[in-house]
Amino acid sequence: MKRILLVEDSIETSKMLHTILSKDYQITQAFSGTEGLLLFQQQSFDLIILDRMLPGKSGQEVLEEVRQTSQIPIIILTAISNQNDIAELLLKGANDYLTKPFNNNELKARIVVQLRTHSHEEKITTTDILQYKNLTLYPDSFEIGNKKGARLPLKRKEFDILALLIQHPDKVYTKEQLYELIWGESYYGDENTINVHISNVRKKIKQLDDKNQYITTVWGIGIKLS
Hints:
There is one protein chain. This protein is α/β, with parallel strands linked by helices. Helices cover 42% and strands 20% of the residues. The strands form three sheets. The protein has a five-stranded parallel β-sheet with strand order 2-1-3-4-5, sandwiched between helices. The chain has a four-stranded antiparallel β-sheet with strand order 6-7-8-9, covered by helices on one side. A two-stranded antiparallel sheet has the order 10-11. α2 packs parallel to α3 (59-66) and α6 (156-167) crosses α8 (191-208). The longest helix is centred in the middle third of the chain and has 18 residues, at 104-121.
């Protein structure tokens, strides 16, 4: 089940949205911008519904901080219909917006569209040769090579992990996100499988290029390309 972070300071509105969305999604509620950011950093989500006016950090501040590490789809809820303000939020990284009061079915539809679009954007493409720093991924043979011509074989999941990271070099992936994207199954906390594959990828990379760091751990969140 897809996970949505709902950052809305109105208890009444948050309760209403939780009621209408919880049948289809796992909803985590935050009632301030500061709480929303903390939850985002600690947990894995597929989409954020973000109120513009919040106590603590504003919706715009939350948007800007999230965009420093993630391209997770964000739908802004705003009571302000000023088109210049809305345009600024979109330019700062919001994927969509709704002006209060809004139609519940329209919100549901916009959520579906964003999740579908985001899923398509993160689809792992293995038809093209991928390069990063001194390494090259070869999809036809599932191999990784260096500039000197040396190559090592990768298992399919190892290849997919590295291909995903290279295709989205600025994104931090949680273990839950990696598992669901690479294995195509719901994550139930089995970290060992992911840790073993990431460790194997790191070892093979080091054999080919021991002077550069390629995969870095973002403590408390996940991994990304260095």
